[in-house]
Amino acid sequence: MSDQRCRILIVGSVNMDLVLQVERVPGTGENLIGSSYSYISGGKGANQAVAAARLGMDVTFVGRTGNDAHGQKLIHGLNREGISTELMIQDPDNPSGLAVIMVEPSGQNRILVYPGSNMAIREEEVERAFKHTYDAVIMNLEISDRIIGFVCGLAKNKGIPVVLDAGPVRTFDLSLCPGLKVLSPNESEAAALSGLPCTNPDEAVKAAARLADISNAGYVVIKLGAEGAVLWRNGKSAFFPAYTVEAVDATAAGDAFTSGLTSKYLETGDMDRAIRYANAVGALAVTRLGAQPSLPSAAEVAAFLEHQDNHYDNTG
Ligand code: RIB
Predict the structure, then answer these.
(1) Whole-number Å distance between alpha carbons of 16 and 72
(2) Which CATH number covers residue 88?
(3) What are the beta bridge partners of residue 222?
(4) Which of 125, 197, 239, 262 is the most exposed place for a label (fewest CB within 10 A)?
């Protein structure tokens, strides 16, 4: 029997997250007591891979961990989700990526990342992956510019659409990625890339228009957290309000959104439906602590949407 699932290649980061729950994040020079800590598997690329697998996609992951205990645990976690990790490297020279995440009771977080081995992915590791074909490639900015540009070139040659989740916040030369299908930053990432403020849906429309000009992406989708998402397509904008949920931890909500969007877009070819679905996937990720443990399955998303009939006029 042939596997009808969409095939996704993710070239991205994998981190161990040190998650601290705090009453509030400390200010400069302040020393506060937190209420708990745990090590939880994360990294934008790995989170996107796990989200995609739980939503039913057939996922191949290219990335690097260190040759250390965190690395083994991170790869094992991806394998448990049925993600192909055969092309992953355990880097002898660099430690696994580490993120320190402080989560406040509101679910808001602050994240600081040490990329470690994520920045050492090499061209030949990616080339091996491109011996196969995929329905889409997902990347983020937690890996080197050189590799992002290289992957975009290989995908373009093979006619494979690329979805670029533009996190974390940093400058990036979008001309390295001509022909993007989807460019999807959050508010602060959109501001950094566009040079425009992006704190509400109106500003997001302007930032999205600027990003579409700079990148020439088919779709610019700006994630606005608890507000929802703005789409810019062919010179027109649309706003998709978020679902209301009880927030525990916003970590990986954007990663969940990106994989939700990719999966529904590949299934239907309808970007509006894809964003509505992505809003649901992202909302569910906010209701649980941690990155990968928070990512919902397709069944959970379907059950959630069954109770949200009137949220959009045409939920699709
Ligand atoms: O997007 C959330 C992720 O950002 C975390 O899991 C952390 O590892 C950082 O990469």
Answers:
(1) 11
(2) 3.40.1190.20
(3) 230
(4) 197
C-alpha separations of 41 from 22, 92, 316 in Å: 19, 20, 32
Using one digit for the tens of pLDDT, what is the confidence trace for 59-110? 999 999 999 999 999 999 999 999 999 999 999 999 999 999 999 999 999 9
The number of folded domains in the chain is 1
Counted residue by residue, the chain has a size of 316
* Residue 196: domain span: 7-26+34-310
Please indicate whether residue 173 is annotated as part of the active site: no
From the list 17, 255, 309, 313, the catalytic residue is 255
Whether 83 is covered by a domain: the verdict is: yes
Residues of the chain with pLDDT under 70: 1-2, 309-310, 313-316
Residue to substitute in 64, 113, 169, 170 for testing ligand 1 pocket (most ligand atoms within 8 angstroms of CB): 113
- Distance from the alpha carbon of residue 118 to the mean position of ligand 1, in angstroms: 12
Please give the span between the terminal C-alpha atoms of the chain, in angstroms, as a whole number: 29
- The residue nearest atom 1 of ligand 1, judged by CA position, is 252
- Alpha carbon nearest to ligand 1 atom 2, residue: 252
